Amino acid sequence: MSDPMIRLRELYVEFNPPGKRIQAVNGVDLTVDRGEVVALIGESGSGKSVTLRAMMRLHPEKTTRYSGALEVAGQDVLGMGGGALSQLRGKRVAMIFQEPLLALDPVYTLGEQIVEAIRRHEPLGRAEARARALQLFERVRIPSPERRLDAYPHEMSGGMRQRAMIALALACNPQVLLADEPTTALDATVQIQILLLLRDLQRELGLSIVFVTHDIGAAAEVADRMAVMYAGRIVEEGPASELLTRPRHPYTRALLGSRDEGALRKGRRLDTIGGAPPDLARLPAGCAFAARCAFADDACRAAVPERRELGARHAAACRRLDELPALLAVRADEALPS
Amino acid sequence: MTGYLLRRLGYALPIMLGVSFLCFMLVHLSPGDPLVSILPADASAELQRQMMQLYGFDRPLLEQFLRWLWRALHGDLGTSIATSRPVTGEVFRAVGNTLMIAVLASLIGFSLGSLFGFVAGYFRNSWADRLASFVSVIGVSLPNYWLGMVLVIVFSAQLMWLPATGAGPGGSSDWAWDWAHVQYLILPALTMSFIPMGIVARTVRALVADTLSQEFVVGLRARGLGELGVLRHVVKNCAPTALAVVGLQLGYLLGGSILIETVFSWPGTGFLLNQAIFQRDLPLLQGSILILALFFVLLNLLVDVLQTVLDPRIERG
Ligand SMILES: Nc1ncnc2c1ncn2[C@@H]1O[C@H](COP(=O)(O)OP(=O)(O)OP(=O)(O)O)[C@@H](O)[C@H]1O
Ligand SMILES: [Mg+2]
Known about the structure:
Mean pLDDT of chain A: 87
CATH superfamily of the largest domain in chain A: P-loop containing nucleotide triphosphate hydrolases
Oligomer: heterodimer
CATH topology of the largest domain in chain A: Rossmann fold
Radius of gyration of chain A: 21 Å
Bound molecules: adenosine-5'-triphosphate, magnesium ion
Largest sheet of chain B: none
Number of domains of chain B: 1
Number of helices of chain B: 12
CATH class of chain B: Mainly Alpha
Shape of chain A: globular
Helix content of chain A: 25-40%
Mean pLDDT of chain B: 84
Strand content of chain A: 15-25%
Number of domains of chain A: 2
Number of strands of chain B: 0
Number of helices of chain A: 13
Radius of gyration of chain B: 24 Å
CATH architecture of the largest domain in chain A: 3-Layer(aba) Sandwich
Distance between the termini of chain B: 10 Å
Strand content of chain B: under 5%
Structural class of chain A: alpha/beta
Largest sheet of chain A: 8 strands, mixed
């Protein structure tokens, strides 16, 4: 707990394309320890990918404004110069993208791309780098790896491409792996294989992983902790098992839906909630979820709720946390036939 | 690869046949008497008939075409009516001359166009982009012959650095690759390069901007590649299309620019076509159109093959 690989404090990310202002991330606090796996969940547009990419400062430099503190592998990502940043990327922190077909250069073979990434960070010859690439392909369990190194991305199946992408990410032995929906684009059976692979690699290499997912089952399977995002804030975070069985924030409750048998089944998608998330160009003054929350009152709409520790690394940001059980009980009574 | 090449050649053959048929027919469909330029105005009907027979103009069209094609296949495109010299020689000399300025113009156009396009696409919406786009629009839209005359006025008349017209100190017949000759090449090639430059610049700008907006560029940055590393990837992604565009431009330039070649008195294909049309020199016209069309088809083929070799995304299906 004393050895954080990622530390975000009051992180804000704002996009300023011409004539617009999009507040995509609005004060995120998150700590990820060495060897820890954290899942980011939340509805589409809640700022999961933006938060993840911010950890490598990957957003377009010109139109993006960051503020707050952002440390990865002990380095201040927001303060560092371009040279130091590109030393960090790929070497200390690597990223796995949702759609490897789009995230790999189509006109270079996978071998060429891995060799390039290795030689970017380490003084190795071509042959040595290629030998390492071959080992990586074996490690991510790609069959006939020698031949596959010379394949172009479009010549592989989705699952193989994602394995290759993982090999590429691991090329320089990073400590932190960021994965943005690494299995969403894949078939169900392949999804499980990739998840298991990631989990095995994480254990072998002691990686810290932050991964975005819409699949609660996947999160439950792989993650130590989960963080729930809404409108660019983390509304609740805690140990995965606790969050799944005892969610506290109304948004988490709605998102995870009924927690019966089926809730933890792999592949189960998040529930949909009535209403729409707020416009990130015009955030409300108070709790961003208030407009869709059955329990919101005027005080909720007046000020952004503080984050409250609920013990054992569990925290949530809701003013009425303590009243909720009672409120829920009343609602349950009302629903009962008299 | 060999199979692919053979297949592509196989596709090209019927195109070439069609092209030669069209060349032949188009010229015959145009109104007027083919012999009018060499026969005296008061020639007797008998003389006229004899001449028609001599040149074969009295036969059925299809037969004329087949004879012409057969001879063409043996390298004989007939005799120019105006000069009485073999058409093949005339055309190839002109093609050679035009090829020199066209290749040089394509090289200049490709280099400058790629440079402008790259800068514009990479720094989109910056002042460099606006400047590069302005230059390329100027290049495409200003009339060629006007540019040519301006260049002549500046570099020949005022500065006296380069000769204004001609293809060498002793005419075009004794071409050599020395400065005395090459200096004649520069102004026409430069003038001719403006259009390919503008077109290449616009294409490359769009290509680069499109490539940069793709997700894999974020992927490259996430691997720790710096701007130069990213640049290398962008170039390789854009190169096949950029080369195809310049290849096609070279094809157009081979047809010669009548205006440019006239301004610079450059004895190329444009000049030759001009001459053939005004003198109604049918064999010369047919021959030069045919050869140019074949060049164009072959160049297209070459560009296609080159693109397939360079771009792994294109299946050799
Ligand atoms: N470069 C950018 N410029 C402007 N707006 C952006 C940019 N990147 C993201 N956004 C906006 O930020 C908001 C949050 O997007 P983000 O991609 O983080 O959502 P997400 O939680 O990952 O959703 P999903 O589950 O659909 O992937 C969206 O409204 C998106 O349009
Ligand atoms: Mg996303």
